[in-house]
Amino acid sequence: MQPKEAYALINAKEYARAHAIIPDFSYRVYLSDCTNFASHILREGGFDPNPDWHYNGDLYPTGNLIWIQASGFVQYWSLIRGYLGEVCTDATEVNAYADEGDFLVWKNSDTYEWYHTQFVQSKNMLAEISCTQHTPNYFNVNFNSRVDSTTFDTNKVYIVDMP
Fold first, then answer.
1. For residue 112, pLDDT beyond 80
2. Tens digit of pLDDT for each residue in 68-96?
3. N or C: which end of the chain has fewer CB within 10 A?
4. How many CA atoms lie within 13 A of 77 on its CB side?
């Protein structure tokens, strides 16, 4: 595991706000862009790419493109970099354990497929989080408004717990 480094939460949140709806075209943008956008947020929050964190299309040793695939993102940031937080099986847990600046990575419990990444933009006085993401693009939307009673029947959320 590599040492933890400084994370400029204010910079990450501002970048997410500025580019939530209209992508930052100084980076490559993909049709399915959620994890790529999450990687941009991390970079703008102070994490510089290194030989293990590729942007130029090189493959991570597991065969995943870190910048654009949820599986590579969660493996790298949680297992290699040490930012694994809670694994949540309902919205109450997600709201309880996620904090501003964290990332939520969704995994289908039936297929074991990692398929989506979101940025936790804020947390209100009721301890409810709001997320910013691409695919679809939205800014600071209440997490509870995007899930229902069946969402966690076949899904888990892994929190990438940033400092």
1. yes
2. 889 888 988 888 889 999 999 999 999 99
3. N
4. 29
Residue-level pLDDT at 121: 98
State the sign of the Cα–Cα–Cα–Cα dihedral 57, 59, 63, 69. Answer: negative
Written as six digits, the tokens of 95 are: 């709201």
Taking only the tens place, the pLDDT of each residue in 23-66 is: 999 888 888 999 999 999 999 999 877 767 765 555 445 554 56
Q: Computed from CA positions of residues 43, 17, 139, 20, in that sequence, does the dihedral angle turn out positive or negative? A: negative
Alpha carbon 94 to chain centroid, angstroms: 13
What is the distance between the alpha carbons of residues 132 and 79, in angstroms, rounded to a whole number? 24
Strand 138-142 to strand 103-108: parallel, antiparallel, or no bridges (unpaired)? unpaired
- Residue type for 95, please? N
Determine the number of helices (DSSP H) and then strands (DSSP E) in the chain: 4, 6
pTM for this predicted structure:
0.91
